[in-house]
Amino acid sequence: MGQRTEVFDIGRLGLSSGEGRRLELEVPVADFDFGGQRYRVPGGSVNATLDVAHTTSGYSLRLRFEAALEGPCMRCLDDAGQPVAVDAREVDQPGGGEELASPYLEDDELDLGAWARDALALALPTQIVCSDECLGLCSVCGENLNRAGADHAHEPEPDARWAPLRELRLE
Ligand SMILES: [Zn+2]
Ligand SMILES: [Zn+2]
Fold first, then answer.
1. String of DSSP letters for 18-65
2. For residues 167 and 171, what is the distance between their CA atoms, to the nearest angstrom?
3. Using only C-alpha atoms, what is the Rg of the chain?
4. How far is the CA of 128 from the centre of ligand 1 (A)?
5. What is the pLDDT of residues 36-74, one digit of tens each?
6. pLDDT tier at 95, thresholds 50, 70, 90
7. What is the DSSP letter of 156?
8. CB 133: neighbour CB atoms within 10 A?
9. What is the 41 CA–ligand 1 centroid distance (Å)?
10. How confident is the model at residue 77 (pLDDT cuts 50, 70, 90)?
11. Pick from 6, 11, 7: which is nearest to 107 by CA?
């Protein structure tokens, strides 16, 4: 595995037009908040594959990595360990206008840390869960329903028709 790389100088690859290179890099990813919970990637970094291709007038870039997020399941609060796969692309073409300038590339310096963080945020599911089948917490007692078993239940609310009788005091 390559060394931990926050900013990568793609100019030093010395690629000429039409050439490409694949690199394995360790990219730091800071902890982040999502849905009111705190998440992190194990070790604070991901092992990423970076593809750099020198096009006729710029660069075409692809960043891929997988991360098992450390943080709570949004339903049951157990550790979720949800795997997230990231596959992001960027094109940078000087003179091609605003749309073709990558915000992560400046003077051949690729801000891998920022790109990885944003790409991960875009790849997140709407809800981070321990499993799609997670039953969450009991709305009455807060018990984890994944562990409580299928027969977990509470006495139904007392029948309202008996309420007057409970008010009755026999003294
Ligand atoms: Zn869960
Ligand atoms: Zn309960």
1. T-EEEEEEEEE---EEETTEEEB-GGGEEEEEEEEEE-SSSEEEEEEE
2. 12
3. 26
4. 9
5. 999 999 999 999 999 999 998 899 999 999 998 999 999
6. confident
7. P
8. 7
9. 18
10. very high
11. 11
- Å from CA of 153 to ligand 2 middle: 6
The whole-number pLDDT of residue 64 equals 98
- pLDDT for 103-155, tens place per residue? 999 989 999 999 999 999 999 999 999 999 999 999 999 999 999 987 899 98
Give rounded-to-5 percent helix, strand, coil for the chain: 20, 35, 45
Phi, then psi, of 162 in degrees rounded to 5: -90, -5
Question: Which two tokens mark 121?
Answer: 């945020």
Buried (b) or exposed (e) across 80-113, using 16+ Cβ within 10 A? bebebebebebbbbeeeeeeebbebbeeeebbbb
CA of 166 to the centre of ligand 1 (A): 40
Sign of CA dihedral 102, 106, 110, 114: negative
Confidence of residue 96 (pLDDT cuts 50, 70, 90): low
Among 89, 69, 61, 83, CA closest to 29: 69
